[in-house]
Write a structure and sequence with these properties.
With 418 residues, the protein is mainly beta. It contains no helices and 35 strands.
Length: 418
């Protein structure tokens, strides 16, 4: 305790000395001075702290308060004085400091005074904490239905969590609160998520295509909170002019080239197929992927083994309309073997691909169908030996299934003259 007679010094200038338990200066006939002890501060945050002291009035009407500052020689701030009366025993003295500067050391002294004495109760130090900060942010992996929010967080040594909200049309007001003017709706919250220093990736899902979104995030610890926010736009659903396939009707197992353009360059595009006749979901073809060049063009080379409609998938957005698909027609590939028998009789046999059920017919050019057709279920066929007139012949195959294959025919073969 450091005590001085008010009649001698009379002003608080004496309190600029950061005193620790100095003895009182008193005469035998002086009234008793109060006793005061400054205690450690509690509940210290980045901008606030609770101060404590204990005072003994020694049965003399006493008031008490705290003085504080950022230097022991500059205790320039004072809390409101509290009347403690003249009761016996120790009386607690408490005060709350607000609007402190984060990460700053403060010096605090409790002061008690009566009509004759001003007494200091020694000094204590407190260090305000530093609230967590969101130093930077970015949005990546934006599609028509999702995005990833990246936050760079500094925790300043405190256990920290991130919470926030995102929504279509979200507005930021001074980064202290958010309003989401969505009629009949609201934003989508995220967190709290325990975080450490560095990058925090937060998935934002359930977005609508081609819409403006806002987000706000708050990093919170016992030291306080730091906020950040921003806006972004979800991607449009992928649309593209109808892909071009060359040629459009091909034999089974042939290669076709699929070309086209997309609105944005440098997107990853994947060839997709929809089963004929446009009734099933689009399924990407494994392994047929490309990145478009600077002009947004793409090209695929595809071995076609069944008919179907083809389009492209770009960065996860599907062309779900028929106008963005183009159809490939696939015909049977027919191979034929001609075998001579007696008396100008010949047999015809062979195979066709794909091996689906189909109707197989032998034709003589200029004369139409020859004999009966034969059906096949595995692609193999045979016409028994018969008398065939000299001339050009071909075998035609009409698949009889729902796979959408178109008819095919063999190359012409010649039945020679005798």
């Amino acid at each position: 305790m450091f005590a001085v007679r008010c009649s001698v010094l009379g002003i608080l200038a004496t309190l600029t000395v950061f005193a620790f338990g100095l003895p009182a200066v008193a005469q035998a006939d002086d009234p008793p001075a109060p006793d005061v002890v400054t205690l450690a501060a509690t509940d210290v945050t980045a901008t606030s702290a609770n101060l404590h002291a204990k005072v003994t009035t020694n049965n003399t009407a006493t008031t008490a308060y705290f003085v504080y500052g950022t230097s022991p020689d500059q205790l320039t701030f004072k809390t409101p004085a509290v009347s403690l009366g003249a009761g016996p025993g120790e009386i607690p003295l408490n005060a709350t400091l607000t609007r402190l500067t984060p990460a700053t050391k403060y010096y605090v002294v409790a002061v008690a005074e009566n009509d004759d004495w001003v007494v200091t109760g020694g000094g204590v130090e407190l260090q305000t904490l530093q609230a967590p900060e969101i130093l930077a942010s970015s949005i990546t992996d934006v599609t028509h239905k999702s995005a990833t929010l990246h936050l760079t967080v500094a925790t300043h040594g405190q256990a920290t969590t991130i919470s926030g909200m995102f929504g279509k049309g979200l507005r930021l007001v001074g980064l202290t609160r958010v309003t989401i003017p969505i009629p009949g709706g609201g934003g989508t919250p995220f967190g709290p998520i325990a975080v450490a220093d560095g990058d925090v990736a937060i998935p934002l899902t359930g977005l609508e295509a081609n819409a403006n979104y806002g987000w706000a995030a708050e990093a919170t610890s016992v030291a306080g909170s730091g906020r950040n926010g921003g806006t972004f736009r979800s991607a449009a659903l992928f649309t593209t002019p109808k892909p071009r396939i060359t040629p459009a009707a091909v034999p089974y197992g042939s290669h076709v080239t699929i070309t086209g353009t997309i609105p944005k360059p440098n997107q990853v595009v994947t060839l997709a197929e929809q089963a004929f006749p446009f009734t099933g979901p689009i399924a990407p073809l494994d392994g047929v992927t490309a990145t478009t060049d600077a002009s947004g063009a793409y090209v695929f080379d595809l071995r076609v083994e069944r008919p179907g409609a083809y389009g492209v998938v770009a960065d996860g957005a599907l062309p779900l309309t028929i106008r963005n698909l183009t159809r490939v027609r696939v015909g049977a590939v027919v191979t034929v073997k001609l075998q001579r028998a007696r008396h100008h009789r010949f047999s015809v046999s062979g195979r066709y691909q794909p091996g689906v059920e189909g109707r197989v017919t032998l034709y003589r050019r200029g004369a139409g169908r020859v004999g009966d057709s034969r059906s096949s279920t595995n692609g193999a066929f045979r016409f028994p030996a018969r008398a065939l007139r000299p001339g050009k012949y071909e075998v035609r195959v009409t698949p009889e299934n729902s796979a959408g294959y178109v008819p095919g025919k063999s190359v012409a073969f010649t039945v020679p003259r005798r």
